Each structure stands twice: as C-alpha cells, then as structure tokens.
Amino acid sequence: MRKRKTSGRMNALTAMIVVLFLFLCLALAQRSKKYREAAREKARTERKQERQEAIEKKHAQRKAAEAERKRLKEEQERRIEQQIADLADEDPDVRMKALRELGRTKEDRSVEPLIAALRDEDAGVRAEVAHTLAKIGDSRAVEPLIVALEDPDERVRIVATESLADTGDLRAVEPLIVALGDESERVKLAAAVALGELGDARAVEPLLAALDYPDAYFQENILAALGKIGDSRAVEPLLLILEDKEEVRDDGIRRMAAAALGNIGDARAVKPLISALRDENVDIRRAAAESLGKLKDSKAVRFLIGAAKKEERDIRRTHLFALMQIDIMTGEKLKHKLRKEYVAIIAENYRSCIRRGEPGTERLLKEALLQHGTNEMAVDFHSCGNRDLSLAVTAWLSDKIIAGRKEYERISLPQTDTGPKWGSDL
C-alpha cells in the first residue's frame, strides 16, 4: 500500500516536472521568436536607412555634378567672351591666341566677330581668321571668305581658298575659278585643289584651260581635280596627255592623266590605258593598271594578266588587284606564282569579295582562308550567310588542330551581324 502511494507521488512529481519543462520550452520559444522578430525589424530598418542614405548620396552627387557642369559652362562662357574681346586687343599675339582657342571651341556666336576680324591690319591674323572660320563651318562665313580671295596678302588668299574648299559651299566655285588666274602660283594651286574638292562641273573648262600654265606640279594638281570632278568633257584632253605623241609632257603629268581617267570612269579610256601598260615608266604602268581596275572592263583582263607576268612583285600586285576588281573569277585563269599572289590579295580584300557575292568565287575565298586565314576572317566567313564558306571554316579549324595548333581548339565562332554579308553589294 505504502509502495503504491510512493509510486503515485513520483508519477505526479514527474508529471509536474514535465509540465514545467514544457512551459519553460514554450516560454523560451516565444522569447526567441520575439528576439528574431526584433532582429528582423532592426535589419529592415537598417536596410531602409542604408537605401535612404544611398538615395540621398546619389542625389547629392547628381546635384554636385550639375553644379560642376554649370560652373564649367559659366567658366567656358566667360572664357569665350574674353576670347571674343581679345580679337580687338592691340597685341597681335593675343589676337592669334584667341583665334586658335575659338577654332578649338567652334562656337557659333563667334562667327560674326571673326568675320569682322577678317579686316584686321595684321595679315597673319587675317589668315588665321579664315582658317578658324573654316573650322567652325558656318555658312555665314562663305561670302566674307570669298571677299578674302582678293586680300592683298598671298597667305590670306591661300588660306581663304583652302577654307572655302572645307566649307563645301558651291557659292565658292565661280570665285575660285577666278582665283585660277591669280598672280601667285601658290594661290593658283590652292584654287585648283579647292575646285577638285568641291567637284562642280562648272570648273571643268577653266581647269582644262589652266593646263597651259607651264608648271608640272600645277598641271598634276589640275589633272587630279579633273579626276575628282569626274566630267566626261575632260576625257579627250586627258587621253592626249596620256598618249603624248609629241613627247612634251612630264611623266608625272602623264601618270596623273592615267589616274584621272580611272576616276572619271569613261569607257573611251580603256584602250589607251591598255596601251599604257607597256609604257617605259613604271609609275605610268601602275596608274594605268589601277585605272583599268576602276573601269571594270573585261577587255582589259588578258592584257593585265600578260603585263603582270613581266612586272616586279610590287607592280604585279597592282595588276592582280585590278583583275580582282574587274572579275574575282579571273583568278581561275592564273597559274603557279601569279595564282598564289592573287589568292593573297583575295585574303587581304576578302570582305569586299564577300559583299560582292559573285557566284563561283567561293573556291578562291576558301583557298584564301586555308592559306592566309585568321581568327577574324574565320568568324566573318562563318557569319556571312554563305553555307560553303561557313563549312570551309570547320575544315580550316580541323587542319589547324590536326597540325597540333592547340590554341585553335578554344576558338569560338559566334554568329555576328557586324561582319560582311554575302552579296550585300549586289
């Protein structure tokens, strides 16, 4: 009986201990939960505070940057105002320094003060003014620069001539034609070059007439200008110069005539240029080959091939390049050394060949890849849109890897839109 009472008391005590333990566990759990919630709330508050501080910092930085930009702009404004004011300074060196700074900043509001400065008493300053106006490129400067073509100082007239060419304004054409008759050879020369840059057909007849001036360098620049203008009225006079049956023309002049004929692009020049491939002067032969390439007349192919066989390597490359311009497939007619050099030229100009997209040229392009391929070339072939060229890249890479070139194992061939596309020039 006594044992039963003792056992009951033990059970009750155990139960009380268990209950107390559970109560303590629950209390600890609730307290831990409160701590965790407090910690999370503290972390949230800290993150919110950090975000706010970051926003405020960014705002402050933006505000500081805006203030700095405003300060720099105001400083630049003051500097430009000072430079414009310096144009009236008594010291020509100060005026020159101001002009150079205004040319660098290219401020539109400086145009009118600069136009006024074209009447400066110092010729060097007037020349620098003309140069600065050309840099700014404002159309308001054209008429004052035309007036400057009559400046008593040669330097000013030269710079005015060059500056008018830089503007590209066709109002300058007639005054520049007049400048071809300037008493200064340097002004004449500058006018010829400027007329070529402007490219207006009104200058053709005056330029042809100016060829009578007895200076070889001047005549060469006249011919270059006629080539840039590209008017067919110049073809017959240029052919007469090229053929030079009376042998009175300098070889440099004949070379420029050959080059100009290629730029004009008239078919009448093909036969005389073919004849010029046999000229005694190497520079004339080179110019003739270059021009035949530009004319792209198939009648020149066999003559270029024949001439290439007789030329030294440097000149021969010019002939081969001309053949590529006329017809890429010409390479299939070449053998041995000529074909090898032709394929090298194809490799150097593979982008233009891809853009031309001429059927059948894939074989030559693949040959160029195998012999002269680069990683960049492989990527362009892979992305150009021609299946044969894309497959050729795989073969090229395999050959490199088989040959033990481990670096080629890591080459990736991404599809890119930036490279040449097959037939995009058609």
Write the layout of secondary structure elements.
Layout: H1 2-86, H2 92-105, H3 111-117, H4 123-136, H5 142-148, H6 154-167, H7 173-179, H8 185-198, H9 204-210, H10 216-229, H11 235-243, H12 251-264, H13 270-276, H14 282-295, H15 301-308, H16 313-326, H17 336-348, H18 350-356, H19 362-372, H20 375-383, H21 387-402
Helix pairs in contact: 1-2, 2-4, 3-4, 4-6, 5-6, 6-8, 7-8, 8-10, 9-10, 10-12, 11-12, 12-14, 13-14, 14-16, 15-16, 16-17, 17-19, 19-21, 20-21
Looking at the overall shape, the CATH architecture of the domain at 63-198 is Alpha Horseshoe
**Count of β-strands:** 0
Note the quaternary state here: single chain
Q: What's the order of the H and E elements?
A: HHHHHHHHHHHHHHHHHHHHH
* Percent strand: under 5%
Q: How much helicity do the residues have?
A: over 70%
Low-confidence stretches: none
- Globular, elongated, flat, extended or rod-shaped: what is the shape? flat
Name given to the CATH homologous superfamily of the domain at 63-198:
Leucine-rich Repeat Variant
Major sheet characteristics: none
Evaluate the radius of gyration. Answer: 40 Å
Termini gap: 117 Å
Q: Which CATH class of the domain at 63-198?
A: Mainly Alpha
Stated plainly, the CATH topology of the domain at 63-198 is called: Leucine-rich Repeat Variant
Total DSSP helices:
21
